[in-house]
Amino acid sequence: MKKSLTLVAVALLCAACAPATNTTPVPVPSTAATASAPVSLSAGSGPQAPEGTVPTTTGISWDQASKDAAVDVAEKAMADFARPGAEEKQWANDLARWLTPQATADYSAVDPANVPATRVTGPATLTVDEANGYGVMAAVPTDAGAYTVQLLRTGQKAPWKVNRLTPPAS
Length: 170
Prior knowledge:
This protein is α+β, with helices and mostly antiparallel strands.
């Protein structure tokens, strides 16, 4: 009897120390759905996108040399990527010269034997956003279908680097 009273006392003590759970949902004020956020202002206290227009690209613009360089890097990177028979270390080293630091880390674990493409079959085509001179998407045709290659750069004279190679949709 004494033992069971001790167990009951311990159980009650533990229950008293445990945090209470509140299962009642917190009511959402009806004005929350209709309230709008204040306008976000830029450094000069003006709206970031007046009249909903996209601001022009700052400091980087598209020219034919930029487009040609992006196409060149996309094709060369894809050619280095599409070598499933290459030795892993050589494949990774050859591909790394075209990649951003993040992509280098991401693709370091890829086994080239798992890459379905074995060659580039045509020229890359760009999808250019004229308001974004820092990035571009390229479609690179391969014998496994067209890969989408995301390219980034940090400035007008900076080299294009591949951030992602996306295989064709299955």
